[in-house]
Amino acid sequence: MNTRIRPETAEFIRRLPKTETHLHIEAAVPYRMVAGLRPGKFPETPDFWHEDFRFGSFQEFEDNLFALALDWYTSAERYHEAARAVIEELRAENVRYLETSFHIGIIEHLGVPGEEIVQAIREAAPPDFEVRVFMGIWRDHYQGALKGVIDDMPNWRGLAGVDIHGSEEKPLEEWNARAWAEARQAGKLTKAHAGEFTGPGSVREVLDFLRVERVEHGIGATADPQLVARLARDGVTLDVCPISNYKLRAVESMEAHPIRALVDAGVRCTLSRDDPTVFGNTLRQEYAALAGSLGFTHAELAAIARNGFEVALLPDEVKRRNIEEIDAVLAES
Ligand SMILES: [Zn+2]
After folding, report:
1. Structurally, how many domains does the chain consist of?
2. pLDDT at position 141
3. What residues have CB less than 8 Å from 146, skipping those under 6 apart?
4. What share of the chain is helix, strand, coil (3-state, %, to 5)?
5. CA 78 to CA 117: how far, in whole Å?
6. Which residues are catalytic?
7. How much distance in Å is there from the Cα of 58 to the middle of ligand 1?
8. SS3 125
9. Residue 1 falls within a domain, yes or no?
10. For residues 196 and 220, is the Cβ–Cβ distance under 8 A?
11. Which of 218, 220, 216 is nearest to 274 (CA)?
12. What integer pLDDT is reported at residue 11 of this predicted model?
């Protein structure tokens, strides 16, 4: 991966108003905060933060993530503290809007109502920053006490939407489509993870069966030109996380990342970090990887930033102001 870019491009990326729309809060708590809980338990700088590090397997990634996240996430207050720190870091990168998800399983694990977690994250945002909270649900989560949680979710006023997490290999179930339709009827945005390690079939499935408005990753769509044309025509947005894809070996190399082909085909893509506690990535590095490894021009980087505001759950006036600022930064570069 090449993130070595010209100083003018680094400065351009820094100045761009940005969004992040694909971030798992459990995997976003700053590493130093988790490591600080138990000095000596975790190394100061973990191997997996190195830019060229790649995980041997998804299991290896997950083991590291769980070890870190389970130590930190013991209460709704910890969600609040983590979200405050995440937002502070994002503001320092000139990010102004965040969509983040929390894992539904934590509701049972901690015995804390889901709405309290939503509220804890929302209250972490200062007045000049907007955060929207999503609940991440596995394809087979409709069981036991979580059935009631999923049935009630459309009534949660603070919840912005829902996202399918977990294994893309497991089949979607009837309840997935019903719950996603109910969420939309209640005015919520629906997403699903698909096409990260799977092919175009899984992307098509979440579009046709779940009718999602956003696909998280979705890069597997590139194997099917007809599907790519459909994504472009229908204005489907992919929330793409290149460094995550690189470190988890979902792509052969950063130079071969499908975001280049998707953008060239007119598919609307945004840029996010996915799981920065484990990857050690910043949003500026994500932009730098596109410039350094995939030859994205300033205009193309600006278009990615613009996409984030276009799909954001923000008033039109706020979107317009941010997009005008992006255009002005581009004009000066
Ligand atoms: Zn993700």
Report:
1. 1
2. 93
3. 104, 105, 107, 108
4. 55, 15, 30
5. 9
6. 196
7. 13
8. coil
9. no
10. yes
11. 216
12. 98
* CA-wise closest residue to 80 among 123, 139, 51, 44: 123
Beta bridge partners of 268: 237
Structure confidence at residue 20 (pLDDT): 98
Q: 15 CA to middle of ligand 1, Å? A: 26
User: Which residue ranges in the chain fall short of pLDDT 70?
Assistant: none
CATH (domain of 125): 3.20.20.140
Q: Degrees (nearest 5) of the Cα angle 269, 232, 218?
A: 50
pLDDT value for 307: 98
Predicted confidence (pLDDT) per residue in 205-253, tens digit = 999 999 999 999 999 999 999 999 999 999 999 999 999 999 999 999 9
Q: Does any domain span residue 224?
A: yes
Looking at residue 38, what is its pLDDT? 87
Does 90 reside within a domain? yes
CA of 23 to the centre of ligand 1 (A): 6
Quote the pLDDT of residue 44.
87
Domain boundaries, position 86: 7-332
Burial bucket for residue 293 (CB in 10 Å: 0-12, 13-18, 19+): buried
Answer yes or no: is 2 within a domain.
Answer: no
